[in-house]
Specification:
By secondary structure, the protein is α+β, with helices and mostly antiparallel strands. It has 10 helices and 22 strands. It folds into 2 domains: about 210 residues, FAD/NAD(P)-binding domain (3-Layer(bba) Sandwich), CATH 3.50.50; about 160 residues, Polyamine Oxidase, Chain A, domain 2 (Alpha-Beta Complex), CATH 3.90.660.10. It has a 7-stranded mixed beta sheet. It has a 5-stranded parallel beta sheet with strand order 12-4-3-16-22. A 3-stranded antiparallel beta sheet has the order 7-11-8, with no helix packed on it. The chain starts with a strand and ends with a helix.
Length: about 400
């Protein structure tokens, strides 16, 4: 390791330090609220990050603002933000993974409204209604929570967070091997590329993918096996998603319909046109999520068949026969979609002492974007604190 000079974030907390964290604090002259580690010299680290999901981007944002660490991010896909995913089709922009994020976490709200550029950050005004087994659509329970999104798509979250850092993000780079040696953590990608050594490693993939990486890791430590077991204990729901485009505007008072008792083949359908700036006037785009059992049973069926079935069911639920015949369609299978439980904390903490941090919604124990972001912020802070000690 080399020792770096103090940076502009390395200072004693001032003013209102705590938002539930020992590091969170006031604002520097540039308005930056990351940081506040300790007034001791900082060990300059090389940090490797597997995955560029919401949690990883939030952690990178904090680490970059709190330390002089060099950050290298390896992301297997061509985009950022993982399961919060956005596609474009001509003038239409739609999210095909997460739909929106809630304002449930004060720090995440502060992050997106005060620290990041809030241009294009929007609340979805229309409510969420419910539908039941009898096909009845009713007002149901809509909470006062805001449903936040960006005009440009939810991927803005990771783009804006990484955009604030000096992290080097390598897309289309799938990590296949992890090795721990005396010099640190080493990674191998699917093309045989070698990365590292890293003083600390952040692992953001969903629990089954993290477990698979660690199961095969060349890391001779009892912490490895415990961490694998912890990750393997997390169960997931599968979601098969159809995106249905129409050349007319659907006139309904709700943004989305949810089937709370999960008794039907469709769990959720949402109107992307309720998100400002997404769908041109005179058009509609429906995002239809099949329930987990249906998604597992039909995961490998021909997509056209699945879409036809889901479009027909959508027409029945919404009560408009035109919806059975979309003008264009898209689809996405999410085999590992939503964690149903969290991982036990003990093995995760033990691994952190060896410099390996797992992070994401499955660590938070909540299949929510705001929970993943919060977990990333907290993880980044723990790493920054550890680096200062
Ligand atoms: C269909 C669906 C609907 C959802 N709806 C909502 C919603 O409306 N509201 C809400 O709050 N949440 C929703 N969620 C949940 C939300 O998307 C997640 O909680 C959140 O995105 C998780 O972020 P993360 O950083 O934990 O993980 P991820 O987003 O999964 O990020 C992990 C990253 O790691 C990468 N990766 C994996 N393996 C490797 C590897 N070997 N090498 C390199 N990179 C790798 C992945 O490509 C990915 O980019 C939904 C999820 C799905 C699937």
């Amino acid at each position: 390791m080399r020792v770096c000079a103090l940076d502009r974030y390395n200072r004693i907390p001032e003013g209102d330090v705590c938002r539930g964290s020992p590091l969170w604090g006031g604002t520097d002259s540039g308005g930056d609220r990351r940081r506040l580690v300790a007034a001791a010299p900082v060990w300059c680290m090389h940090v490797g990050i597997i995955g560029a999901g919401a949690a990883a981007s939030a952690a990178a944002y904090v680490i970059d603002g709190s330390t002089d660490a060099e950050l290298t991010v390896l992301e297997k896909s061509g985009g950022l933000c993982g399961r919060a995913a956005t596609r474009r089709r001509g003038p239409v922009t739609y999210d095909y993974g997460a739909n929106y994020f809630k304002d449930d976490d004060e720090r995440v709200v502060d992050l997106v409204t005060e620290q990041l550029d809030s241009e294009g950050l929007e609340n979805i005004e229309e409510p969420i209604w419910v539908f039941d087994e009898e096909g009845t659509v009713s007002e149901g329970r809509d909470s006062d929570d805001r449903k936040l999104t960006y005009r440009q798509g939810l991927t803005q979250l990771a783009k804006r967070l990484f955009g604030h850092t000096n992290a080097t993000v390598h897309r289309s780079t799938r990590v296949e091997g992890i090795e721990r040696t005396d010099t640190g953590w080493h990674l191998t990608d699917a093309d045989g590329g070698e990365w590292g050594p890293f003083d600390a490693l952040l692992c953001n993939p969903p629990a089954p993918q993290t477990a698979a990486l660690l199961r095969d890791a060349d890391w001779d430590d009892p912490a490895r096996e415990s961490l694998v077991e912890a990750a393997e204990s997390v169960d997931y729901r599968t979601v098969w998603t159809a995106i249905l485009g129409y050349e007319f505007r659907l006139d309904r008072p709700y943004y989305a319909l949810v089937n709370p008792d999960k008794s039907l083949d469709i769990d959720w359908l949402a109107r992307e046109e309720c998100k400002p700036g997404r769908v041109p006037d005179g058009q509609s785009v429906l995002l239809v999520q099949a329930n987990s059992d249906w998604s597992v049973d039909h995961y490998d069926d021909p997509p056209a068949e699945n879409i036809e079935t889901l479009a027909g069911l959508t027409a029945d639920i919404v009560g408009d026969e035109r919806l059975a015949d979309p003008a264009w369609t898209d689809h996405q299978g999410w085999r590992v979609a939503l964690p149903e439980n969290g991982a036990p904390e003990g093995p995760l903490q033990t691994a952190e002492r060896a410099g390996l941090y797992v992070l994401g919604d499955w660590v938070a124990g909540e299949a929510r974007l705001h929970a993943a972001l919060r977990n990333g912020l907290d993880t980044g802070e723990r790493l920054a604190l550890a680096s200062a000690q």
